[in-house]
């Protein structure tokens, strides 16, 4: 799932490449992408891009008073139609994900929004105010925002009888963090992913706040300027714990393990995070 560091890098590239460009054509291949049926994406033909910003994990392309807000969902992304070639080298290489919507600009370039999942998680809204989009309206404070404070963090954590990993990923509490970066944050802070937020000791909350802000800020800096077709691969390569089950912990050398978290799989280090306790991994 795209998270705030990669989405931030994406919107910065889109802003740099598209500001001042005019849309000449829109092709919606999958009708379920459009969430504002009264204002389909085709109404943007002739509109000029005035900028691009991020709201949590969502992309917002501005056209003066009008906004195209795109939720990338679980497997969505964006690519230039004239960008990197499809994977090659082996017969079993995965094909590139299908484009569900394509926007062409007056310089001849086409921006495609893709979705690689088994269901359509990509969504697009044409609105006058991005806060008309429910997923934007519900967002909590963003750890990457300059004004993000310890008070914002404590408001999300204090008294919450909910596992701390779930709180980190709860967009109403902290915008932009998902499964991968919550694993990285919790490992860096030496905090168990399944402890309730209300049970965190003061020093654990201190470390968790520092690592939430620091991990996201460092990841944004690391992704900035990387071409959008490489952002996902660079994210995977940079993970210290997430997706590293079976590998040695980079801090203590213990084996990184999988555990079941909701409908997905996450990773942790038993020595660094759970006092050696092994968390359950349910069979699929």
UniProtKB/TrEMBL annotation:
Occurrences of domain FPG-type (ranges): 240-274
Classification via Gene3D superfamilies: 1.10.8.50, MutM-like, N-terminal
Cofactor(s) it depends on: Zn(2+)
The keyword DNA-binding belongs to this UniProt entry's keyword annotation: yes
UniProt keywords, alphabetically: DNA damage, DNA repair, DNA-binding, Glycosidase, Hydrolase, Lyase, Metal-binding, Multifunctional enzyme, Zinc, Zinc-finger
Catalytic activity: Hydrolysis of DNA containing ring-opened 7-methylguanine residues, releasing 2,6-diamino-4-hydroxy-5-(N-methyl)formamidopyrimidine
InterPro entries: FPG_cat (IPR012319), FPG_N (IPR035937), H2TH_FPG (IPR015886), Ribosomal_uS13-like_H2TH (IPR010979), Znf_DNA_glyclase/AP_lyase (IPR000214), Znf_FPG/IleRS (IPR010663)
Domain of life: Bacteria
Transmembrane annotation, as ranges: none
Pfam families: Fapy_DNA_glyco, H2TH, zf-FPG_IleRS
Every Formamidopyrimidine-DNA glycosylase catalytic domain range: 2-120
Similarity field: Belongs to the FPG family.
Protein name as catalogued: DNA-formamidopyrimidine glycosylase family protein
Organism of this sequence: Agromyces aurantiacus
């Amino acid at each position: 799932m795209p998270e705030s560091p990669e989405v931030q890098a994406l919107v910065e590239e889109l802003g740099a490449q598209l500001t001042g460009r005019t849309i000449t054509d829109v092709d919606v291949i999958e009708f379920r992408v459009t969430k504002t049926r009264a204002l389909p994406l085709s109404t943007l033909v002739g509109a000029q891009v005035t900028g691009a910003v991020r709201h949590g994990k969502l992309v917002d392309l501005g056209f003066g008073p009008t906004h195209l807000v795109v939720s990338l969902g679980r497997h969505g992304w964006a690519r230039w139609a004239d960008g990197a070639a499809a994977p090659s080298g082996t017969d079993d290489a995965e094909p590139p994900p299908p484009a569900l919507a394509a926007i062409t600009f007056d310089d001849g370039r086409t921006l495609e929004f893709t979705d690689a999942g088994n269901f359509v998680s990509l969504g697009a809204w044409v609105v006058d105010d991005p806060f008309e989009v429910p997923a934007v309206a519900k967002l909590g404070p963003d750890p990457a925002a300059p004004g993000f404070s310890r008070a914002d963090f404590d408001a999300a954590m204090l008294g919450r009888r909910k596992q701390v990993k779930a709180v980190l990923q709860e967009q109403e509490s902290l915008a932009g963090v998902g499964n991968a970066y919550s694993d990285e944050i919790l490992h860096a802070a030496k905090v168990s992913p399944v402890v309730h937020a209300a049970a965190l000791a003061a020093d654990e909350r201190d470390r968790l706040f520092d690592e939430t802000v620091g991990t996201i800020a460092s990841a944004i800096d690391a992704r900035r300027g990387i071409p959008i077709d490489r952002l996902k691969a660079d994210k995977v390569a940079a993970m210290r714990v997430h997706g590293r089950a079976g590998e040695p912990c980079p801090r203590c050398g213990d084996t990184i393990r999988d555990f079941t978290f909701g409908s997905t799989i996450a990773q942790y280090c038993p020595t660094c995070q759970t006092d050696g306790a092994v968390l359950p991994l349910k069979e699929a």
